[in-house]
Design brief:
This protein is an alpha/beta fold. The protein folds into two domains: 225 residues, Spore Coat Polysaccharide Biosynthesis Protein SpsA, Chain A, CATH 3.90.550.10; 186 residues, UDP N-Acetylglucosamine Acyltransferase, domain 1. Helix content is 21%, strand content 29%. It has ten helices and 39 strands. The strands form eight sheets. Strands 13, 14, 16, 17, 19, 20, 22, 23, 25, 26, 28, 30, 33 and 36 form a 14-stranded parallel β-sheet that branches. A seven-stranded mixed β-sheet has the order 5-4-1-6-10-7-11, with helices on both faces. Strands 12-15-18-21-24-27-29 form a seven-stranded parallel β-sheet, with helices on one face. Strand 2 and strand 3 form a beta hairpin. Helix 6 crosses helix 7. The longest helix is centred in the middle third of the chain and has 21 residues. The radius of gyration is 32 Å and the shape is elongated. The termini are far apart. This is Bifunctional protein GlmU.
Amino acid sequence: MTQNALAIIVLAAGQGTRMKSRLPKVLHPIGGRTLVGHVLATASRLGAETVEVVVRHERDQVVAALASEHPDAVIVDQDEIPGTGRAVQVALDALPSGFDGDVLVLSGDVPLLEEETLQGLVDAHRAAAAAATVLSAIVDDPTGYGRIIRDEAGDVARIVEQKDADDAEKATREINAGVYVFRAGLLRAELAQVTTDNAQGEMYLTTVIGLLREHDQKVAVEIAADTAATFGINDRIQLAEAARTLNDRIVRRWQREGVSIQDPATTWIDDDVTLAPDVTILPNTHILRASTVATGAVIGPDTTLVSTEVGEDAEVRRSEATLAVIGARATVGPFSYLRAGTTLGEGGKIGAYVETKNAQIGDDSKVPHLSYVGDATVGRGVNLGASTITANYDDVNKHRTEIGDEVHTGSHTVLVAPVRLGAGAKTGAGAVVRKDVPAGALAMSVAPQRNIEGWVQKNRAGTAAADAARADSAE
């Protein structure tokens, strides 16, 4: 294996007690991915020979999530010896035999570092022929972070953790970002000398920096241009701040690609979303997971799309859709709920207060308002009257409804599945359809109307209705 080979080690073994959560810290999500998922997504673009993730606390949860997000990552278990130094040591032992390239160490709770920053760090490390290169940042308040301590020549002398720093060292504003590049052979040798003799009783990876200097090895530092991107996530406040920073970055990226975002402050877009030029996003809109929106579509206001596909020039207003497909020039909303498996054809309409689920609705078909369409196939050119319901559940099983092309239903129609309406069929208002309707037939289920004269005056005497009826009858 060449000396220019790169291995990446992602540290994800920490407990994250300040999150106060049943969920491991590195699995908290921002921008549609877990924290460690963002780190691994960036790492995967750096051309490494191998990417390892070191796990310990809540190991099974973390491994299960990684299997879903990044199945190619190599899982390495840290033992009972605590500390980042020990985590890297066991990861080095798990590298392919004979690996003697560079090792990039990342933290699973630092999700905002971009590919350019990390590639620049690796390139600077190699150009300087350094034994180690540290990513640092200059901050106004360094509380809680390890400090970069430089010597009189301005070179790195050592890194001191907050709990081990004296007052002068605590005043230093240059912090350790927890990201390093090492030459693998030198890193192995120095880690063998690291002990747990410190305030926290841990094997610090940062101790290696001081040891390398003591052994006259070159240690370089790269100061990050984007300070905020170097911050780790330790509590819910920092999680929210990181989510906002990431979202601002995503919004600006799409604006540069020709997407109109009317109110960036209230628009949230996940990292895996795809938007075409000339999409318009109105305020209070969330476009999440792997959603895609085609040219000319208008989304919002007050809309949430989750893993939903929206076609060209479609409009979705004040509605929610999950795992749905909305065709070109279709309209959805306001106040619609498209559940998983909904497909709305080109030019179709799902209107106000409509819920759909596992429903395939054909081109130019309309479900205008106050309806439920579930487990149904709806043909082309269909118009379902107000309050049309597909009664798909019999308390035991779900059943499908099939509606042919150009079917029109009257208001308050109930289609009791399993049932089929042939092409061109119609239903009368209030119909309860329990049997198949042939093509072109009219289905009705109405009893003759019976009027009982004087019922209100007799049974509701003294009410306003009785008085009004009496007065009207006298005219």
